[in-house]
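Exam prep: given the inputs below (a chain plus pyridoxal-5'-phosphate), describe the expected output before reading on.
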Amino acid sequence: MPVDAPTPTLDPVRVRTDFPILAQRVHDRPLVNLDNANTTQKPEAVIVATDHYYRADNANIHRSTHLLSERATRAYESARARVQRLINARESREIVFTRGCTEAINLVAHSWGRANLRPGDEVLLTWMEHHSNIVPWQLVAEQTGARLRVVPITDAGEVDLDAYDAALTGPVKIAAIVHVSNALGTVNPVRDMIGRAHARGVPVLVDGAQAVPHLPVDVQQLDCDFYAFSAHKMYGPTGSGALYGKAALLEAMPPYQGGGDMIASVSFEKTTYNVPPYRFEAGTPNIAGVVGFGAAVDYLRSFPVEAIVRHEHDLLEYATARLEATPGVRIIGRARERAGVVSFVMENVHPHDIGTILDREGVAIRTGQHCTQPVMDRFGIPATARASFAIYNTRDDVDALVAGLETVRAMFG
Ligand SMILES: Cc1ncc(COP(=O)(O)O)c(C=O)c1O
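Solution:
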């Protein structure tokens, strides 16, 4: 963009019309969907692409010589090229399709981890990781004798970078860090953190589940070694996602699962393996999900990323101000850089009660631990209520949330 070009904007009211599900009423109220960090709604373009695949192209990929199989393979591989462009990976073979972010992290933990971790080695995590970026490493640590080292976070919900540096002086073999926290909204300075890890020869996996829908992500600029994310949090179907891995790392990694498509040749004496990314895509994949993933990438890219950032930042600022002005509400997570998510608690009301009452008002949020139990323990709370934003949300949605909280307060005195 030229230096003084105005920041592009997006019109959420128009965007809403792309999402058929948002037209409905729930409990006789207009649906206010503020549970987008959990999963986003799907635009018509994604629904149509998935539907078209089943109506017109359905066949297994990479195997048959007939026309439908050719079309299905082309659609699947063109989705890979689109995902590559979205995150600016150097080569399409650096994109492995998975069931989602969780499977992408498991793939690295089990394949890279089992090949590279030894007793006494450390896997470096932060205190704000999602369970999906904790448990796979615990599993592989049990198998290899490695252990976890966890970097603390501050009261504001930011990673303690001095503690991170100190931890990197230990026997750390890999760091696995979240880009945007799903519980706190914190945007971590991942480029800087990757630079610090690389200075010590430590590769870095970034959990980008909450970043790709909201921020520009350029894996070459970040210089991350692995980047994991899910389609369903960025307007795509459930059950598909991607792992980016630097080609040289993927080349050196053993298979994650065995089965069809991941082999070069099989005999009872010896099996040889296919090249990446196919080495890591055993069995018939979620072809329809990947086709929809490709359509979701096109849809997301139809908006200038600066417009998405600006719109969602405005919503976050507005929601923060309105929640701060609501008696009894306390926001959890006050990092300087936040995206997509605002978590809060309310005096004398359990978050589950907040969620139930808001639902009756037509407002969908998430309540609970958000698969980040250590974050809840860190802040000494059992759970939070969380509103999370997408491109189709408006300030009116935030007003509906706050009006619902007034009802909660009236009921709980
Ligand atoms: C930060 C983060 N990492 C990982 C995941 C796991 O994503 P999925 O369940 O799509 O595999 C989530 C899902 O909420 C998340 O928010």
